[in-house]
Amino acid sequence: xxxxxxxxxxxxxxxxxxxxxxxxxxxxxxxxxxxxxxxxxxxxxxxxxxxxxxxxxxxxxxxxxxxxxxxxxxxxxxxxxxxxxxxxxxxxxxxxxxxxxxxxxxxxxxxxxxxxxxxxxxxxxxxxxxxxxxxxxxxxxxxxxxxxxxxxxxxxxxxxxxxxxxxxxxxxxxxxxxxxxxxxxxxxxxxxxxxxxxxxxxxxxxxxxxxxxxxxxxxxxxx
Length: 223
Prior knowledge:
Elements: E1 2-6, H1 10-22, E2 26-30, H2 33-43, E3 47-51, H3 59-68, E4 74-79, H4 84-92, E5 97-100, H5 105-123, E6 127-129, E7 132-135, E8 140-143, E9 146-147, H6 152-163, E10 169-170, H7 171-179, H8 187-201, E11 211-214, E12 218-221
Parallel strand pairs: 1-2, 1-3, 3-4, 4-5
Antiparallel strand pairs: 6-7, 7-8, 8-9, 10-12, 11-12
Helix pairs in contact: 2-3, 6-7, 6-8, 7-8
């Protein structure tokens, strides 16, 4: 993902560039408001770190002009001011969030990641099931603001059962659909994967809510 840093303080600008590049983001910088505005339109970053007090155009005016141009990215205002009125003006001017200077770099990075993660989730409508949200294109499952750590096969099993929810699926059918081969006595791999998946998605794996056993048949997604 692409990030633009707009700040007239060179040491801060370069330290943020280094921090964000280490986190595997593509980074561009600008040192004043007009340059920042032009770079935002050319570079089309996913997120802008925008200083509020800039020479030329101030950060608030840059943000307003970008929103007038239908700029779709996230704007985080960086401001040395702590007054509530300045924060409100920034948000009303089109900023998504603000960070008051001085700030810890790792805290800022966490804020950046949270916004970009939310943006990525919003770009692909999730499939809701109980308190889970499933994103098939990215092979992700979220509970609230936390992504569950699923293996590719665990996700494939979950997605297959979700797509056939409330319909019992035999182990043979699951093995063929998820593992890609016919049943040949290897049903244990299904059982083991189901158990691992339950430990990750169920509040009580011993009393599953989502992935239930259908006696004599196999398994079913029941939410």
